[in-house]
């Protein structure tokens, strides 16, 4: 029996809250706290009386003192950070001050530069270790399940993994010419940055969307996918011994790319502040304000996501290939929790990661990425809580 403080009340948090309530045997009590308290109250109104006691609070998660006061009042076993990457360090500071376990789904990002680096959070390792508390980093789908898939492949299928390709396919259609499936600001920062992949101990940089492949995804069909940098490449390159190459590909439709290019060309995706009518604004934040709220895509999105990892390496001296993936249906997710599959595939692993920390299976003082824990209970929980995985030993490879 545990109590969780969930920070954020957006697309991902909403799914995680639904899943904690479904799992009321573990999550006896949750407090949902966010900048806009009415969103927390709406979730409480929807889910109250289903086994988990729910309270709500207003918090500015950029403010460490406010966070410490809230944690001292709620006294949670774990803080689930489902706000934005900008808040990771303030929430980690508050967890340290109150000796409370921490988890998140995205690495810390300074507001003024898109970095996608773990270094700031990894620097907390000794302090978390000394405090006897666990920080579980990146327990969404990617990062998150992709790291667990890697630990599972290493434990059960390979002596050595040499090549990893992470393939993230969203075959969903929301009917808008342009919208993002999760926080637009973070999404656009990610896809408008240079691509990067890791090969033979070095990072190789590409222009944004420079490397394109076509892949035939089960239950989705053929899709164009593009090489991107994604934060789990950094931790997996460090945590998988003997790895020769790791790449990440994400699918994008032509309409999305054409709109994005136009927005970039006119300067709307910039994170450099500009002065507009005497006030400093960040163009990308303004763009976010005019785009559809990702949470509003739920009822409109049809189709499936298919996300997984293709591993190549050695087992008993022989070459081996292994593909493990999950297929998730947007409409089924909406019917279950009122959100589309991109939020669902992140919110379910967030609940699972928090559950494993609080039930002791993944309680290891220090700061760790998901692939540094035993993957078995997580893999079982994915099957149980709505993200069943499939595997193939003879998949189509990416050249
Ligand atoms: P949303 O924008 O839908 O929700 C973010 C929530 O955080 C909102 O409720 C927002 O409040 C709240 N928030 C923002 N700033 C603060 C603050 N200073 N204090 C308190 N609350 C704050 O984002 P998503 O739910 O789509 O994404 C949540 C996280 O999940 C992000 O970090 C994202 O990068 C990550 N993610 C990870 C994925 C993975 O697979 N690992 C995939 C998708 C997302 P308000 O309502 O007031 O704006």
Automatic annotation (TrEMBL):
Q: Which Pfam families match?
A: Sacchrp_dh_C, Sacchrp_dh_NADP
Alphabetical list of InterPro entries matching this protein:
NAD(P)-bd_dom_sf, Sacchrp_dh-like_C, Sacchrp_dh_NADP-bd
Q: Which domain of life is it from?
A: Bacteria
Q: Where is the Saccharopine dehydrogenase NADP binding domain?
A: 5-136
Cited SUPFAM superfamilies: NAD(P)-binding Rossmann-fold domains
* Residue ranges annotated for the Saccharopine dehydrogenase-like C-terminal domain, each copy included: 140-386
Protein's UniProt name: Saccharopine dehydrogenase family protein
Q: Which organism is it from?
A: Metasolibacillus meyeri
Which lineage?
Answer: Bacteria, Bacillati, Bacillota, Bacilli, Bacillales
């Amino acid at each position: 029996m545990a109590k969780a403080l969930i920070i954020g009340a957006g697309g991902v948090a909403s799914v995680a809250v639904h899943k904690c309530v479904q799992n009321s045997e573990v999550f006896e009590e949750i407090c949902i706290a966010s900048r806009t308290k009415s969103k927390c109250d709406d979730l409480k109104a929807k889910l109250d009386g289903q086994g988990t006691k729910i309270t709500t609070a207003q918090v500015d998660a950029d403010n460490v003192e406010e966070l410490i006061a809230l944690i001292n009042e709620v006294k949670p076993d774990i803080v689930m950070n489902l706000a934005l990457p900008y808040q990771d360090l303030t929430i980690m500071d508050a967890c340290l001050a109150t000796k409370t376990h921490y988890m998140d789904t995205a690495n810390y990002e300074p507001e003024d530069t898109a970095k996608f680096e773990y270094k700031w959070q990894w620097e907390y390792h000794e302090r978390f270790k000394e405090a006897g508390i666990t920080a579980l980093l990146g327990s969404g789908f990617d990062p998150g399940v992709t790291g667990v898939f890697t630990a599972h492949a290493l434990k059960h299928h390979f002596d050595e993994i040499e090549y990893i390709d992470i393939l993230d396919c969203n075959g969903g259609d929301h009917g808008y010419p342009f919208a993002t499936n999760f926080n637009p600001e973070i999404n656009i920062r990610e896809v408008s940055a240079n691509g990067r992949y890791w090969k033979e101990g070095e990072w190789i940089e590409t222009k944004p969307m420079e490397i394109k492949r076509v892949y035939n995804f089960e239950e989705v069909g053929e899709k164009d996918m593009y090489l991107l940098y994604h934060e789990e490449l950094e931790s997996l390159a460090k945590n998988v011994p003997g790895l020769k190459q790791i790449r990440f590909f994400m699918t994008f439709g032509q309409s999305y790319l054409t709109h994005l290019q136009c927005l970039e060309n006119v300067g709307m995706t910039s994170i450099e502040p500009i002065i507009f009518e005497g006030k400093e604004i960040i163009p990308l934040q303004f763009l976010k304000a005019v785009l559809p709220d990702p949470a509003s895509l739920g009822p409109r999105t049809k189709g499936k996501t298919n996300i997984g990892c293709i591993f190549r390496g050695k087992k008993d001296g022989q070459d081996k290939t292994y593909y493990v993936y999950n297929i998730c249906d947007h409409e089924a997710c909406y019917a279950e929790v009122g959100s589309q599959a991109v939020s669902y595939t992140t919110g379910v692993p967030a609940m699972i990661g928090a559950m494993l920390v609080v039930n002791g299976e993944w309680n290891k003082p220090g700061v760790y990425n998901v692939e540094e824990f035993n993957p078995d209970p997580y893999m079982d929980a994915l099957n149980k809580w709505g993200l069943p995985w499939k595997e193939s030993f003879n998949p189509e490879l990416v050249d």
